[in-house]
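Hi V.,

Quick status before I head out on leave. The structure for the redesign project is tokenized and pasted below; the design run finished overnight.
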């Protein structure tokens, strides 16, 4: 007599930790850069150099790179520079050991750049780190039984989502964008902003498909007499294939992407003029692929002429509750920060989502956060200078998730699907945005799975105490299985003796139990 076993592949977060780090530094503008008169925009990027686990501790080392766009003291021109702030942080995290791989994400919650004087800037940021230890578990469970001796067993079907593949990968992209005919040639690039929208992944045989849109904005210095700051913006669709061994169609992808290295160069067109922006971004991918299965497993066993005890292990099984998305629409009128610098023409707007809280509520996931919108515009006071304004718009949104419970697990991904900013007046903007939230929700339940069995000879004293024939009056909730297990009688025999077509019985039914075969 032998159990037939199958492995269930599961992932779970066994430990979590978080910390906030305040980074600040004063930075001198290098000698080859012009003086600064006004700060236009800034963006931060965390570059991790080391994530090393020790005994109950994780060491983080990296640097914050702050790109700064500023207005020079020369009319109508801009310049940019970088500030680099190194950091090293030690985070206590119970349960981790040397060599563990720690999933780490971070959010730059508050980036502030100030102008100390025309040659010196201050940069400060609050960075929140979230750390998770993800365990991959293979759990054996019995799905059938080989037997020559009489034995009774029953099965149960569990909807199970298994982790099939987890890995990190990259997707490289190369796009060329040529200036429209009315724009001067490029002398040098001052600033660029690259974002990705409508990014979708699909599982195929041995590969993943990816498609979406890349949006690019450039500030540049024109060639020759056109040395003032100019701008160019474009959106291009893209698609591609990522090789992924073990991937199959209809798998459930849970993929987090972020912009990694991005190389921007200016190249010549067919006429030899510097008019083509070549953008080569790298998307860093954190890939989880799940597969849903209705798994039939043994749920109980008993012997007829042997004493059989099913040995169980309590495990947490995940099933898919929801894989979907929702959109939060924002519409707001916003005043510019500096009314004394009125708007004449809008150049470019970019947004960033900051999530403050995400929590399970009744039949949904409540999200609270802000949309920060930075808008560059030409000033209408006769200077033809570029200025900027920053507006922070709060939002609340609930993604519908029927039957979600506090024990459910969810993963949330968010992006700005659409951002439109228009002028209402020279000091007021109309901001419209569509925020997309993608979520995958797992129901988690504890289940006792049979992992082994103990077979012994029957206890003859116990068996002799049982009557050779008895009429059993079924109680509330009793089943033929319960009666057969109690008296070591096969289910088929109970049905035959009692002339039952099915195994269904009701409270009060009289069931004749006869020991031995009939």
């Amino acid at each position: 007599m032998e159990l037939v076993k199958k492995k269930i592949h599961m992932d779970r977060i066994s430990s979590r930790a978080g910390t906030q780090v305040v980074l600040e530094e004063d930075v001198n503008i290098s000698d080859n850069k012009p003086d600064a008169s006004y700060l236009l925009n800034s963006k931060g990027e965390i570059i991790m150099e080391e994530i090393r686990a020790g005994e109950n501790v994780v060491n983080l080392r990296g640097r914050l790179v702050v790109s700064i766009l500023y207005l020079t003291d020369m009319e109508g021109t801009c310049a940019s520079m970088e500030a680099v702030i190194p950091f090293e942080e030690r985070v206590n995290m119970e349960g981790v050991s040397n060599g563990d791989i720690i999933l780490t994400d971070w959010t730059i919650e508050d980036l502030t750049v100030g102008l100390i004087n025309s040659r010196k800037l201050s940069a400060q940021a609050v960075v929140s780190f979230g750390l998770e230890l993800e365990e991959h578990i293979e759990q054996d469970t019995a799905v059938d039984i080989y037997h020559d001796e009489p034995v009774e067993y029953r099965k149960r079907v569990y909807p199970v989502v298994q982790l099939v593949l987890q890995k990190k990968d990259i997707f490289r992209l190369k796009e060329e964008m040529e200036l429209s005919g009315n724009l001067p040639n490029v002398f040098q690039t001052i600033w660029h902003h690259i974002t990705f929208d409508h990014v979708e992944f699909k599982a195929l045989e041995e590969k993943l498909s990816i498609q979406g849109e890349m949006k690019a904005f450039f500030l540049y210095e024109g060639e020759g007499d056109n040395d003032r700051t100019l701008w160019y913006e474009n959106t291009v669709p893209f698609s591609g294939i990522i090789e992924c061994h073990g991937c199959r169609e209809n798998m459930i992808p849970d993929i987090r992407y972020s912009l990694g290295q991005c190389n921007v160069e200016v190249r010549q067109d067919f006429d030899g003029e510097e008019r083509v922006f070549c953008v080569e971004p790298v998307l860093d991918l954190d890939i989880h692929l799940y597969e849903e299965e209705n798994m039939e497993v043994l749920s109980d066993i008993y012997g007829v002429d042997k004493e059989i005890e099913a040995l169980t292990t309590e495990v947490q099984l995940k099933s898919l509750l929801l894989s979907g998305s929702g959109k939060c629409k924002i519409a707001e009128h916003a005043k510019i920060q500096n009314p004394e610098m009125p708007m004449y023409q809008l150049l470019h707007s970019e947004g960033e989502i900051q999530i403050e809280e995400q929590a399970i509520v009744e039949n949904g996931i409540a999200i609270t956060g802000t949309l920060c919108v930075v808008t560059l515009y030409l000033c209408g006071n006769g200077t033809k200078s570029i200025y900027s304004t920053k507006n922070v718009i709060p939002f609340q949104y609930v993604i519908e998730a029927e039957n979600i419970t506090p024990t459910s697990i969810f993963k949330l991904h968010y992006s700005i699907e659409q951002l439109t900013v228009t002028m209402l007046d020279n000091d007021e903007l109309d901001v419209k945005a569509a925020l997309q939230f993608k979520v995958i929700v797992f129901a988690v339940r504890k289940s006792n799975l049979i992992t082994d069995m103990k077979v012994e000879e029957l206890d003859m004293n116990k068996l002799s105490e049982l009557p050779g024939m008895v009429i059993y009056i079924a109680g509330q909730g009793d089943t033929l299985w319960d009666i057969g297990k109690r008296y070591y009688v096969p289910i088929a025999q109970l049905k035959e003796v009692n002339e039952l077509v099915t195994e269904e019985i009701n409270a009060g039914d009289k069931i004749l139990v006869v020991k031995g075969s009939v």
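Above is the designed sequence. The chain has three helices and 21 strands.

G. will cover questions while I'm gone.

Best,
W.
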